[in-house]
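Give me the fold.
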Amino acid sequence: MLYNQMGQKEKAELLLRAVVKDHPAVYDIEYSLGLLLAEKKQYAEAAEHLANAAVGLPDRARVHYNLGLLLQYLQKDAEAETALWKALKIEPNSIDYLYALADFYIKRGKLQAAKPIVEQMVAKHPSQPIGHDLLNFLNRELEAGN
């Protein structure tokens, strides 16, 4: 972690890989390796490590959230949707997870699926303008028949 914070990503990667190899059940380290690989734009391998971490850390919403975002980027929509739902199930009040899932559906033109999630954003976080803005957008689009 220290190597990564100091910008020495190659040293950090080597050390993280060694720990994952020697201690595969230390899922926090595998999660860190996945995040580092994503930073280095090694997305496919990053997704493998994040998926392993998600299995080993099933109650850590952030792991599922990051996996979902990465799978979305890799255009693995079904897997991304599942991971984002897992994150939201663990932390149902998280505006980040609500937003990520709503955004996922909006980007795929699934406005009807996005609407109840956005409504939850507004209900749970009424002072946050993003929920209101998204709800207004969805209402306009749905009224227009999009």
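The mean pLDDT is 93.
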